[in-house]
Amino acid sequence: MLFPIENEVRQVKILNGIWKFKKEDWLDQGVEEKWFEAPLVNSIEMPVPASYNDITTDRTLRDHVGWVWYERDFAIPADWMDKRLVLRFGSVTHHAVVYINGKKLTQHKGGFLPFEAELNEYVKPGKNRVTVAVSNMLDSTCLPFGFIKDADATYCREGEKEQEYQFDFFNYSGIHRPVRIYTTPKRYIKDITVITDIAGKDGIINYDIIMEGDLGDAEITLADEEGNVVAKTSDLKGKMVVKNACFWDVRAAYLYQLDIRVGEDHYTLPVGIRTIEVTEKQILLNGKPVYLKGFGKHEDSDIKGKGLDDALNVRDFELLKWIGANSFRTSHYPYSEEIMQMADRQGFLVIDEVPAVGMNFWPDRVVFEKGAVDEETLKHHKDTLTELYQRDKNHPCVIMWSVANEARTSEENAVQYFTEVANHIRSLDKTRPIANVMVVGVELDKVSHLFDVLCINRYYSWYYDLGKIESIYPRLTTEFHKWYEKYQKPIIMSEYGTDAIAGLHKLPEVIFSEEYQIEYYNENNRALDDCDFVVGEHLWAFADFMTSFGLKRFDGNKKGIFTRQRQPKSVAFVIKKRWTTK
Ligand code: BDP
Known about the structure:
single chain, Immunoglobulin-like, Jelly Rolls, six-stranded antiparallel sheet, eight-stranded parallel β-barrel, 9 helices, alpha+beta
């Protein structure tokens, strides 16, 4: 799926700003009362993009389970009517139904990936109205995974629903990423796939350009960063060779521009030439071993929740560079396209994750059996992987796909499930390694043979052996050696951390203090340094973030190396020293 760009034939109109907004008082009220047919009445104002939960002072809106409605007017210039018009949402979390001038245009399930639909049949020149119904309800057919139950009628309204979920981030909802209308010619460039390779000093770009309609002759060029054309062709599918190429490398990005003109259409795609491979003990980028230093992150901030925030994202990348990181994981869902583009431009390596999270820790339920995960979940999981692949396949920053976080892979039925999931992503992408981020122990896990790299989340001296810093080194080295001996695959420590309340200082260290967080990381890192098959460390987490209420959560999760306001805790300086010298 191509990102909308602007040039002399393609235009983009961004519908960000203040929209009308209304919460339903009972489930399906909006559809029953046909709120899409006329302009919304008794609405409030709501910014887009943003989560709606923390914008107002209304607790019932923050905690709402069900549908809310967004609406605004937009104008279509008369001279756009002979072009193809597309309405595109960067993401709506988690379910969206879109109406134009009262008629249903499209719907989408999955809160972290873009979707779009052609507008031509629905709009007129001048003023038009878009209405979007948004639901945050997650059941066992959704990713993230959750359960809906009836709320207790003794203190809730009859029919009210309660959301159960066991993933550790607040279930923010709303129109989270930009809304755009873009134009293309009626016959247009529909898709581009680029796979790069390296032969000695030369770069190879295998490309495939898909058209909608017969567009006629093509003119395809590849320009370097100075704008010099380094390769040229008229074939829609083939191979370009760049002599003495500049390769895209970690923290040394180099992007060529693949410029495609066919018929009336014109599209330009940034291309980084790089390879990625996994051996028994290493990850090789362009044939050279690379050690991942970085974080699991969240799209999360005060007020805006999960809404796209360019200032925040630029700040995050500045902090990543300041601390000496070279990578991150999009825990626990695909991040915005704007973030992926920044990672491409700045040379960060990304483990790209689908929102398969929350499939664990149900004490009273098996997960991979009927009633919980079923065929519908599996279908949605595969569809989500397809959508993610389609969106991100051309990003050089994406070095690995993560198919899930902490699923209960000790269950027998998980084997069949993850075999299908792994086969599916491999059928789409033959070039990138795949991982399943794990919590289950080496004796219990049943699916690791399916993956290329072992990504392991471990919290010794926090969730296990709380307070016993001395347990970390022996436990971690023993366990990691067992994993390596069993699978002979490289290991990434994909999560480790402790909650630390910024400003809480104690000597000797106590849990929740900044000193404990420092001791914890020092011990873990000492263990990682003694395992030569470990190829990366991703701290949990980059910054403090909001979660649902829980007695182990004090105003959210405080495992950040930075605060939620993106200021360093003491441990940040310790990590900076390690990463800038390692
Ligand atoms: C891990 C989860 C992550 C949590 C973290 C924690 O993958 O989402 O936030 O634990 O408890 O198990 O802080």
